[in-house]
Task: structure prediction
Amino acid sequence: MNVISRRAFLRGAGSLVGLSALGADRWLAAGREGFGTALAGPRAAAAESLIPLFAEAVAELEKTFSYASVLFTEGDGISMARDRNGKQVSFSPFRGHGLSIRVWDGESFHEVASDDLSGDGIRAAVLQLRRDVAPKKERYRIEPLSPRVGEWKTEMRIDPASLSLEERAGMLDAEFERVNWDEPRVRSARVSTDESRVRRIFVDRNRRLASETVQISHGSFMFGFDAGRPAAGFMRHIRQGGYETARFSDADIETMRAEMVELFGAERVPAGEYDAIFAPPVTGLLAHESFGHGVEMDLFVKDRAKAREFIGKQVASTIVSLSDDPSIPGERGSYPFDDEGMLAQPTRVIERGIFVSPITDLMSATYLARPRTPNGRVQSFDRKAYARMSNTFIERGETDPAEMLAGLADGLYIDGFRNGIEDPQGWGIQFTAQRAREVKNGKFTGKVFTPITVSGYVPEILGNITQVGNDFEITPGSCGKGFKEFVPVGSGGPHIRTRARVS
Amino acid sequence: MSSGFETIRSALAAAKGIDAWELRHDHTGGVQVYLLPKGHESERRVDSDEYIVTVHVRHDGVQGSTRLRLMRGEEAEIGARLEQALYMARLGGVEPYELVVASSPPKVELADPALARGVILQSARAIADRWVTAVGQLEGARPSSGELFAEEVTSRLENSAGFVGEVGTTKLSLLNIVLARTGEREAERITWDERRRVIDLDVESIVGASADEARDLTRAELPPSGTLPVVIEAREFGALFSPIVESSSAESIFQQSTRFEIGQPLPGVTAGGDPLLLASNATTPFGLSSYSFDADGLAARRVEVIRDGRFVRPWASQQYASYTKLEPTGAFGNLEIGPGSVPYAQLFEGGPVLHIVAFSWLTPDRGRGDFSSEIRIGYLVDANGRRPIKGGSVSGNLFAGLSAARFSRETIARGDYFGPRALRFEGVQVTGA
Result:
């Protein structure tokens, strides 16, 4: 399925002199009948009109500096939620826009970030950079990418713009009726559908890139008590694409209910080392926290990643290959170009157990003279770019998951994505999964444990992988760097079998 | 008041069909300094203006509400946007509630003049210089990098019920990363500290302590496996006590998602530990979660939520106070915990005791209070002294732990936490070597 389409467009033109403030009318949405569905058209056109201004700002700045670029981001969308107490229909809380203009002084970047899109605002930012930053003798040179002009737009089977708000609210009501469970133990139930549109424009000397990404997040949450023991069930589909994502299958709903009931009786797991099968969401957590964060090359510059010493060396079982790929259609961590103008393409990080490539932002690739990968990403216009993951996963293997389960004599089947934390310098790892099912002689015993924390030493866990499934699944998530800087990502892979410390 | 604010307020007042509205304006200015050992790597300036408009419409016995953000340059769009918001609000609806009426919020100190708009750049650079100097003097450890964010925000909130409030706040955030090496073993210590005032961000102490810990980590071992008393430092209390904070809100009572009952002891806690006093305090000068008025306009106050281990009253937003017929208290402010019964040093008696300085990431289960986390840095304290610990995990339950918990008598103030320096839980499961 080709979700990201491409078409050439746009050329830089115009002049900083005489720029007018961007008029309000350019943002006007359609009238009542269809406005909620028509946020895309007029706004996208207005965003495109900024490109010549950005190109001129870059040209002005490059009279002083060896490299300059502009990144514009804009978010919009509609959020709907329904629970037993009512319904809310609102604009996305992430609505907003801004731009970041940056220059290279010969050693590092300097930036001005602002939500002022007026000609005066852009001119003031340019003047501020020229006034406050002095070019230095060039210790490192930014090599601009080859010329490229392009626009990308998410492909959708059901464009939200083709649905009226009433229709969307009606769909939400229908979903709630399906999910809401008339069961005495269930105290609350909730369904939400969020449409988000993100427009990005990147401009430097050689590149004019624009994208509009539409993402639908359709989620449900249920909470209840059984004899004073609480449990929750949840389900969430997040895909780049259209409203086709905004519907649960009957199997989804049954699974959510069954998992909640199962958790009423769940116990704490006896802490210890276990033979374990990780379900794909947990495999993804392992990939993300181990050789995702651990190979972000900005950490190499700061001596914060042990992986720096291991390029070309064995770090995992020889049946393990791991990649980061922002070009996978439809996933939450996908994008057509990164926030520094590099077009999406996969990066093989581990090849048959050998660490072959880190992921980079522009600055770390420049400092360490390594090939760039498309991983320079920002949380928002008012934050800088770092080397960040996109969709990170262990690649598909050869073992049938059913066969994997049948071969587990005594261990745990760990499932359900919760959270994790990186330790790129110490190569420690911790992540938390929703539940583990006890397995004896290849069968579930019915005993369930929650929550499940897996911790250990990265090379040990990766080295202990003895089977890699022939299935594959990516789970959507959000990723922070240390204590902040959240970006949308995907992580996943197949079922894997390993041995791990569980508590 | 900005002209944009006036434009939007006038439009709200004139709009037909709106039963109530709230308008908030935040003007944010900031400086971000990225630091390497040699000095300032780069700087970013940030400037933004945003308006958050909420419209409420009563229809068919319910109240529909829609929230809208407008950025700088979009103020003139307000007419069309309000029409959209009204339309959307009518598609939804919950039980009606009233907005906060006119009041005089208390004056809570939230802003440092040293971070005011005209001087924030110089102040940020000066703090960054202090970091560079401090890491330059380290022995047996070396700096990796740092990031300093300085921010000042001016906010104005008005609503159709007559509430008007204006407040200025400042904040500093320091990411500090220090490395140490002993032989072949290298270790890093990463810290994140936030304060409202320059004077409260003790850069030199932060750097010094992180260097000590990084050096210790180069000889850290796994903890022994078994059941041990565990002393947990206050830096983890925000996460550790989150099940109590989340379960004690009026919203959780209304949503029936809490086991807590007003007037009753906390579920699962038996008498035997230091009786818990837990309060939300939004009035603490320069507390990170202090406010003069919350997002609804409710005035700052101190609210004891748990007293003598009993749930005495929920903290309540305007909406959920209305639904539960309880008094509104405002958003949860700074976490305040009452001082304990024993001196800090006594917490480590009767070893071996596992002293947790920092977990890798503590995320207790909200409903049950179960927690399990890897140890990012800790110490095993026994008759032989104090040995650094890293890795392994600690598993327990907050409510069971409180049944025999001892809090230190000594208290600290740390960003949005005010209370004992540490607590001790008995019989906690430790998994290590």
Chain B touches chain A through 78 residues (CB under 8 Å).
